[in-house]
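1st attempt posting a full record on here, be nice pls
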Amino acid sequence: MSTTDPALDRPRRIDVARHLLRADALRGSLAFQAQPSLRNSCLAGFQAALTVAIALPLFHLSPFAHLIGFAALGALVALFGRFECTKGRNRVVLLAALCQVSAVLAMSTASWLGVPPLLELLLLALACGV
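the predicted structure (as C-alpha cells):
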C-alpha cells in the first residue's frame, strides 16, 4: 500500500501559468464566437438595461443617493442565469445576489470596524481567491 503526498499531485502555480499563457490558449480566450441565441442575448441586455433605467434614477432622487452602488450590483445580478431554464434561473439569480450582498457586507463590516486599508485589501484578495 503506497502513500503519496497529495501536495505532490497538485499542479504548481508556475505550471498553471505556463499552461494558460500558451499561444493557443491565449488565441482561444481572445476569439469571438457566435452567440448561442441572439434573441436570448437581446432579452438579457434589455432586462439589464431596464433594471438600470428603473433603479438608478430612483436612487439618484432618494435621500440615500450615496448607495447607488447597490443598485448597480442589482443590475449585474439581472444578467446571471440568462441562459438557464425558468426553474434554474431563480436559483442562480438568488445565489448571485447572496454572493454579492455577502461580499459587500463583509467589506463594509471590515471598514466599519476600522480595519487598516492594507488589511482591507488583504481581505478583498482572500475573498477573490488569490
